[in-house]
UniProtKB/TrEMBL annotation:
Catalyzes the first step in hexosamine metabolism, converting fructose-6P into glucosamine-6P using glutamine as a nitrogen source. It is an enzyme of class 2 (transferase). It comes from the Bacteria. The gene is glmS. It is found in: Cytoplasm. One of its GO terms (molecular function) is glutamine-fructose-6-phosphate transaminase (isomerizing) activity. Residues 45-184, 217-361 form the SIS domain. Keywords: Aminotransferase, Cytoplasm, Glutamine amidotransferase, Repeat, Transferase. It comes from Aeromicrobium panaciterrae. The active site is at K366 (for fru-6p isomerization activity). This is Glutamine--fructose-6-phosphate aminotransferase [isomerizing].
Amino acid sequence: SAAEKGGFDWFMLKEIDEQPRAVADTLLGRHSVDGRLQLDEMRLSDDELREVDKIIVIACGTSFYAAMVAKYAIEHWTRIPCEVELASEFRYRDPILDKSTLVVTISQSGETMDTIMAIRYARQQRARVLSICNTNGSTIPRESDAVLYTHAGPEIAVASTKGFLSQIVACYLLALYVAQVKGTKYGDEIASILAEIQKLPAGIQRMLDEGDQVRKLATELAGSRSILFLGRHVGYPVALEGALKLKELAYIHAEGFAAGELKHGPIALVEEGLPVFVVVPPKGRDQLQEKTVSSIQEIRARGARTIVLAEDGDEDVVPYADHLIRLPKVPTLLQPLVATVPLQIFACEFANQLGHDIDQPRNLAKSVTVE
Ligand code: G6P
């Protein structure tokens, strides 16, 4: 009913709108004012965490893209090698696991069969399994050694939105906690990054408040048969997620690429008028911003219609952006939490223009309980 949807036409719109709260709820009660993390509920002792020498993050669908984002943060803060794997591929490649491997699974529903089978396999190999999950008491947390709940509230729409953002935040809390326990050289980043994470709900709210320009763009582009998404570093999984949302909701060809790979193939796809979203990393010492700006120049020179997501104050992108979506200034690792929001809004409005059922796209299920 309309009441259940909180006045929105679709659950998905309601869930997009709830994201500032969802992220705040993932953080709630998990850190003290002095910037120390407390994750006592998760049932893994500090000694067990200190033994971990490899982390493998496993998930499906949108949760897999959260895992891809998480890898950057996990390796950076914990200094523990981290792999990311699709649940449906994991146990078929004879993976190397033992009791010092921490397998982290990410699942909104807690009922995805591919992920459950990966957990069973990992535990047979004596790895420890920690699940990041949104559904209390579901199968995945019950079958895991430890659990960190995302607390995003029930997600009804098939396409995941607040689930995704809260999963990234939960992974970051885990990574920072392990860094705190291990005392890595990045330990002193914990308090400052936590302070930045606390500001995220406001940044996400701003992206919601500025949603009209994205909806207008979706109306203009609703005739497109193909849309590309480019990003680098944590912006790469954001590009993949932006493309997945369009596939799921609009049933058009949409593909995400690592911007640096453009020249190795995808640039051949660019033709006159092709819409291409580009997520531009914040300016930093790593030159990723500059390299992404030159990718934008290259595709635009070949006729692409560029839709650029760039932080406030980034003026380098202005000459090459047919449409410019501004993002609040945040540390690179946090950018997915603000940059994903306009892509969600875009996909919803695009599908709405085509008259599709936003909450229940054809052929898809909210949780896939078969392998
Ligand atoms: C299905 C849903 C996706 C979801 C994926 C993983 O394919 O349609 O939206 O991302 O399952 O679900 P999970 O509940 O494990 O996160």
